[in-house]
Amino acid sequence: MTRKPATREKLEAGLKRRRRKELAFQLVGMLATTVGIVFLGVFFADLLGKGSSAFVQTFVKLDVEFTEDVLAPGGELDLAYADFDGLVRDALREEFPNVSGRSERRDLYRLVSIAAGYQMRDMIIADPGLLGSTETIWVPASSTVDMFVKGNIDPALDEALRPLSDAQLAWISDLQSSGRLETQFNSALFNNGDSREPELAGIRGALMGSFYMLIITVMLAFPVGVAAAIYLEEFAPRSRWSDLIEVNINNLAAVPSIVFGLLGLAVFINWVGIPRSAPLVGGLVLSLLTLPVIIIASRAAIKAVPPSIREAALGLGASEMQVVFHHVMPLALPGMLTGAIIGMSRALGESAPLLMIGMVAFIVDVPGGFSDPATALPVQIYLWADSPERAFAERTSAAIIVLLAFLLLMNLAAVILRKRMERKW
Amino acid sequence: MQNTTLILILGAMAVAAFFIGRGRAVAVVGGPQHGTDLHSLPGYYGYFTAIWCLLPALAVMAIWAVLEPRVIVALIISGLSEAQRSLSPGELNLLVNNIQNLAAGDVVSGDLDVALSEASSRLSGYVVMSSRLLAVVSLVLAGLGGTIALRRIQPDFRARNRVEKIILVVLIAASSIAVFTTVGIVLSVLFEAIRFFQEVSLTEFLFGLNWSPQTAIRADQVGSSGSFGAVPLFTGTLLITGIAMLVAVPVGLMTAIYLAEYSSNRIRGIAKPLLEILAGIPTVVYGFFAALTVAPWVRRMGESFGFEVASESALAAGLVMGIMIIPLVSSLADDAINAVPSAMRDGALGLGSTRSETMTKVILPAALPGIVGGILLAVSRAIGETMIVVMAAGLAANLTANPFAAVTTVTVQIVTLLVGDQEFDSAKTLAAFALGLMLFVVTLILNVIGLNVVRKYREQYD
After folding, report:
1. pLDDT band for position A77 (50/70/90)?
2. CATH class of A204-421
3. Average pLDDT taken over every residue of chain A
4. Chain B CB within 8 Å of residue A43 CB
5. What does DSSP assign to residue B290?
6. In terms of DSSP bridges, do strands A56-65 and A181-185 run parallel, antiparallel, or are they unpaired?
7. What is the pLDDT of residues A342-372, one digit of tens each?
8. Do B179 and A43 touch (CB under 8 A)?
9. Contact between chains at B184 and A267 (C-beta distance less than 8 A)
10. pTM of structure
11. Cβ contact (<8 Å) for A228 and B174?
């Protein structure tokens, strides 16, 4: 009877300590879980904060007179000599008649993007009858004006420290008050290829490059991956060779992607002689990269088909090949497709191997085929991230938002596919 | 696109061959009512004919695609004048390039002369001739193959077995691609690496302390001796990997423990998909975030504590890389923890230990091999990670262990050496392949050990 309270006391003293430890452990666990999630929150907030403004762009409304003596000095419209920038300059001078002096005028002209001249040219090409008429046109403002309107340049800063002079700020507020300056949807971002001018740069070229590469990847990696998975699951005898294949596939899934780029450079470009920067090479490299992902997913899908299906088919006299192609594969197809979509989303986000095979070039034209020079969307992000202009940082974030939207869509498709086609045995 | 048309025609021929073959099989036994007299189902005779129509033609096309450019270049060169043929390989290559550009209608560097334009028109002639020849040869082969297959159709011809054998060969070939990829990686990296080690000794590469891969273009050039001591790259890689692991291992492990043992189902249902999103973000996006958001933040924080922080510090790259790897560590740790039999957990809890004691004293020791295997895989992933370090780590090869300094890594150097002009006869370009070989070997060892440990451990409790 005397021992019992002593044990109890000891136990109780220890219990408090142990419970404290337990609580601390649980709190640390909770903290760790929130680290990843908090990062995700900060990351998306940062991205949306930086990138959402790139989807709109500042435009200036100008009354442009397509005067004949500027466009057709020789009496005849000649696109090679027509001074389209001159039209824009005339329109700006018209808008601010009391600006005089060379340097003031030059400052005035800098309010409008050089894209304005191209826009005039395209209009004239589309409709030569415009010659001599006056049109009211919205033209893109220069990227510094755009940045100011979006609040990225502080007007309270000393004049020497900011890219816009006091006079330019005054003109901007004049334009704003007369309704001649406003932000509109930035369609250039989705219609143009790359450019050195931020207000002209778009992701169309990169998107098309990624699209062509993914087509090649789907066409190569999916059939080959499914065929390999079928062989390994259904036909491969337990031998050295199939063990070797097995180890290889698992290892390939973990090889750094940049090594695949080295393979592409040495084999596809230097040895086979496919042109650099072509979506064809990129697609081949990405196929090799996604192949292990698709094989592993397809094998899991085949494994999930119960053996009774195979036995029933065999019992009714089907050959082994018929069992696989008539019964196992249709049942495993949703799982295989899910794996393929996940492999594709990995391929879409991949950029390191593409740097090796020359897809980092500055390419203005939108690629129109599998052997045109191209970049991919992630590589475009990498290229823009390197540009010093503030306006490019904004566009990089916008490109990332577009990329993540595509990835989200693909993963959503995979989840829906899995949910709808899932079978309970 | 001549080839596309050709492939379409071949496809149409194959479809036709299928129906002809099937029809012939039925006809041979005297109508569909005698179908049971055939060895295989009629469709298999159709497949057999179609395969023999398609396969030889496609094989010829594949061989043609590989050989055609080489043969044409050889023909062009043999048609050049004696003086041009004796040019150095580089100049000859330029000349051939010029001829090709001229034939394609592009601008040509240098002067246009008669010989050049004559050669280019010969080139266009060869190209047209080659594609016509290919079309004729492959179509004839397709017809021939189909006819021969048709001739063999007899009631007792074992068409199904033939077709299945061909399919099996295709399946085996598909599964062998994985092996060929590995062989291709090893060979391509090894060949260039050997050429590199002919110029730079292996010991200098492995133990040299100075990395500056600029080789001189002219012999008398100043300041570009080119030294290829890779130790600063290895230490830089290890430093950033170490920082990443310091973030990823504790956070990933505790996340796995919390989600497996403590959280309610609802929280797990929210937290797990969120962490999977983290794993699905492309690395270039992490790199952008590291370079533009985390690096300036680290710099400001460090400076407010009085440290000298480089704007491309190892810390920023390592931190973001660590975040990227958290989902990998936590999912592998989750697997390992869940593989521990619940009898062990129940036993410990039944003896009165708290949940944290059960975890640290029973489950974690039992799951340790699996967790270590997972960490090895995570290390391999961190070493091979490219975009984050390319965008957020430096280019200068500093031999330092200071996390606030700028260091460079193996992958960064591979990218900087290979982006832009590549000269496959200079040590500068070849060095990238030597680094690639190192990277491949190290990650291979880590992966094989890691995968083996994880798998063995999983079997242990099954």
Report:
1. low
2. mainly alpha
3. 86
4. yes
5. I
6. antiparallel
7. 999 999 999 999 998 888 878 888 888 888 8
8. no
9. yes
10. 0.87
11. yes
